[in-house]
Amino acid sequence: MSAPPDSNLVAVERRGEVAVVILRREAKLNAMSSEMERQLLGTLTRPEVTASGAVVITGGDRVFSSGADVAEVTDRSPAEVFAYYRNTGGVHEAVAQLPQPTVSAIAGYCLGGGLELALATDFRVAAADAVLGFPEVRLGIVPSSGGLLRLVRTVGTARARELVLARPRVGSAEATSLGLLTEVCPPGVVPLPRAVELAGQLAGLPPLAYALACQAIDAAAESSREAALLIERLCYAALASSDRA
Ligand code: COA
């Protein structure tokens, strides 16, 4: 089968309440070119996504993403790096800020910017033979699409150092024990159906309570005890007086 045209690097399909966003550059292991990021940003604003109850991001049954397109990442000037984040590089933040529950379905390689994308979703379901890692420092750069921040929040500074500097790749079992993955499928089972099932369950939760709980959890990680307690109670107060359906 020939590669999809550049205009078709990201697809979206609905499965009930769940929008499944599919990276479609498999011949390049779903390497995230600027064009793919631009299309992903556009996809997030399509009605299939905005009107969904939850979003799953997948690269298909063979690979999630081998990360940023290496042909683009290493030759940027400082000004070009900032222009990149103004243009398409903010896609990870856009995913992180989706109001709905989000789940990554991870098969095969999930490296660099691909792992940063997976970390931008609320939950990660992986195949038993998925491979995760941050190759950036070996290329003379660092994960910079919110990945360091989210990695530290997810696994702590000591594990983050290990993963970014000392361990090029880890398998699913180890990634789960580190807290990087939510669930691993049995061997031979692709992760998308379980990711869609989990997303469907999350879509059934009261949306405002879900969104506030997610934000309060992130804020708690970086707040004083007093601020974190206040945020919890303000969330409760806001929800107690809202339509909780
Ligand atoms: N950027 C651009 N192209 C990529 C890519 C990336 N991140 N990852 C894979 N590709 C391309 C390869 O160049 C190759 O293209 P070609 O068939 O036109 O030559 C194709 O995808 C298949 O990759 P290949 O390396 O042949 O597959 P593999 O199974 O032997 O190795 C990896 C898989 C993931 C180990 C290897 O592709 C790799 O290390 N990729 C780079 C990962 C990386 O550094 N990502 C972070 C960037 S910050």
Model description:
The protein is an alpha/beta fold. The protein has two domains: 10-203, 2-enoyl-CoA Hydratase, Chain A, domain 1, CATH 3.90.226.10; 207-240. The chain contains twelve helices and nine strands. It has helices at 34-44, 47-50, 70-73, 78-87, 91-96, 112-119, 147-155, 157-166, 172-178, 192-203, 207-220, 225-240, and strands at residues 10-15, 18-23, 54-58, 102-106, 109-111, 123-126, 131-133, 170-171, 183-184. The strands form two sheets. The chain has a six-stranded mixed sheet, with helices on both faces. The protein has a three-stranded mixed sheet with strand order 5-7-8. A hairpin with a 2-residue loop joins β1 (10-15) and β2 (18-23). α6 (112-119) crosses α7 (147-155), α7 (147-155) crosses α8 and α11 (207-220) runs antiparallel to α12 (225-240). The radius of gyration is 18 Å and the shape is globular. The termini are far apart. The model has no long low-confidence stretch (mean pLDDT 95). The structure holds coenzyme A. Coenzyme A is lined by residues 28-29, 31, 66-71, 73, 109, 111-113, 135-136, 139.
Write out key terms for the chains shown.
2-enoyl-CoA Hydratase, Chain A, domain 1; 12 helices; three-stranded mixed β-sheet; six-stranded mixed β-sheet; binds coenzyme A; 245 residues; alpha/beta; 2 domains
